Amino acid sequence: MSAVKEGNFDGIREQVRGIMKQPGYDDGSAGPVFVRLAWHASGNFSLVEHTGGSNGAGMRFPPESVDPANAGLHHAISFLLPIQAANPWLTHSDLWTLAGITAIEAMGGPKIPWEPGRTDYSTAEAAADHRGDISSRLPDGALGADHIREVFGRMGFSDREIVALSGAHALGRCHEDRSGYEGQWVVNPIRFSNQYFKLLLRDIWKPREWDGPFQYEATVAGTKLMMLPTDMALVQDSEFKVWVEKYAADQDLFFKDFAMAFGKLIELGVERDDTGFAQLVKKSAREGKP
Ligand code: HIF
Questions:
Q1: Which tens digit of pLDDT belongs to each residue from 123-162?
Q2: pLDDT tens-digit map of 248-262
Q3: Are residues 130 and 201 in the same domain?
Q4: Which atom of ligand 1 is nearest to the CA of 172?
Q5: Closest Cα to atom 10 of ligand 1
Q6: Active-site residue among 39, 114, 185, 243?
Q7: Which residue, among 273, 246, 76, has the nearest Cα to 178 in the 3D structure?
Q8: Domain residues for 157?
Q9: CATH code, domain with 34
Q10: How far apart are CA 253 and CA 180, in angstroms?
């Protein structure tokens, strides 16, 4: 990996695209796991406590690195390490979020707004950012609509934004050795599209009979597909379902709403100071100063 000039984020995007193809890994692409990394780095933000979020790249240290909800994300972190090593000016936290949105675009999705300036925590700062937490703030796929609204409400998302974000489950798959669930949501899991919504609306889903956690299954075009209980909750809840129907019918609307919502997700808790960097602002917020 060669170095790119400091501040050349287009050069970094090119390097991310260069390592996305990973023969032998999943569907031959690291794209989906980059998207999950960007989301889990950001999705532990709390609007109330003002902790968590993508600033800091805290997943390199406990407690986030040992959170079972983050199982498997070390694959994404390791794929990206050579880029960070070649470009020491680039923070892990900027790289993780930039890799996620670059992957979405490269897999056919919309262009997502992204700003640099995240700073990386030390071990102690990572721990301080989670003080008081007794369990993970990330969602539990076994639960329903109330849980989804609680988790995403804590980050400041509306029903419309929650459903838009959920379309990202068109990408990638569940792994038994990571979450316990197994399988992909759509036929082509490395192509960003509104297929997830179209499939959710079809009357094909049956509980899977197996020893693993409760999930749904269906076979489409010869491919075995799956849905989590949280995915099915989007059509079981009448207010969520309105948006599932809109996005299934209108891919442009989905792409537009998704880009805004995912852009908001990766900005959570990132408050840049006048110089464009985030750390000092976050530190004073943690210490309870104005
Ligand atoms: Fe996921 N998600 N997610 N997710 N997720 C998994 C995998 C991916 C939830 C559960 C799971 C979002 C919301 C939720 C991606 C992207 C996003 C897995 C499987 C589980 C269990 C992990 C594994 O076994 O490897 C729940 C309960 C969510 C709240 C409803 C976001 C909207 C959809 C925010 C989002 O962007 C991606 C991409 C993957 C695939 C990762 C892979 O390695 O292929």
A1: 888 877 776 565 678 999 999 999 999 999 999 999 999 9
A2: 999 999 999 999 999
A3: no
A4: 44
A5: 141
A6: 185
A7: 76
A8: 145-260
A9: 1.10.520.10
A10: 33
Give Dmax (Cα) for the chain.
58
- Give residue 169 CA to ligand 1 midpoint distance, Å: 6
173 lines ligand 1 (CB under 6 A): yes
Amino acid found at 190 = I
Question: Is the CB–ligand 1 distance for residue 175 below 6 Å?
Answer: yes
ipTM passes above 0.90: yes
> Token digits for 55?
């600033």
223-227 β-sheet, strand order = 173-174, 183-184, 223-227, 216-220, 206-207
What is the position in ligand 1's atom list of the atom closest to the CA of 175?
24
Q: Could you give the C-alpha distances from 209 to 36, 172, 174, 217, in angstroms and in order? A: 27, 22, 17, 9
Least confident segment among 6-15, 59-68, 130-139, 156-165: 130-139
Q: What per-residue string of b and e applies to 149-164 under the rule 16 or more CB within 10 Å gives b?
A: bebbebbebebbbbbb
Question: Do the bridges between strand 206-207 and strand 223-227 make them parallel or antiparallel, or are there none, so unpaired?
Answer: unpaired
Active site residue 185: yes
Same-domain check for residues 172 and 86: no
Q: Is 74 a catalytic residue?
A: no
Q: Which of 25, 37, 39, 97 to mutate to test the pocket of ligand 1 (most atoms within 8 A of CB)?
A: 39
Same-domain pairing of 229 and 213: yes
Are 17 and 46 members of one domain?
Answer: yes
Mutate to test the pocket of ligand 1, among 45, 174, 215 (most ligand atoms within 8 A of CB): 174
